[in-house]
Specification:
By secondary structure, the chain is mostly helical. The protein contains 5 helices and no strands. Helix 4 crosses helix 5.
Length: 110
């Protein structure tokens, strides 16, 4: 079945109310206040502490990092790479391995 251009326009106009009724609600954005946890903890002075302080504290507190579960170097490597590639964390390539080594050597803290 072939429709004339006029018939196609009329058919399209007839569908507008159907699509308008099914259109999703528009998104509404509101301001929210977020209270970040505070921490007065600092990284223990061990090799890699300067690299992790200079890099990771831009987004994470030392207290948050120091209370992470014990993970292997491979697991920390994956997390650091995710921060770099997915979240575009600014990590000096020369510091990447020092950060991974530091994190893998962390002991669990309360």
């Amino acid at each position: 079945m072939s429709l004339t251009p006029t018939a196609r326009c009329l058919a399209a106009l007839a569908l507008i109310p159907v699509f308008a009724a099914a259109a999703p609600e528009s998104m509404r954005f509101t301001s929210q206040h977020v209270e970040w946890p505070t921490s007065d903890q600092v990284f223990p002075a061990e090799p890699g502490a300067e690299a992790i302080s200079n890099t990771c504290l831009a987004c994470h507190s030392a207290g948050m990092i120091l209370t992470q579960p014990v993970l292997s170097k491979a697991q920390w490597s994956g997390i650091v790479d995710k921060m770099i590639h997915s979240y575009k964390a600014s990590v000096d390539p020369a510091d990447r391995q020092a950060i991974i080594d530091y994190l893998a050597a962390l002991k669990p803290r309360p």
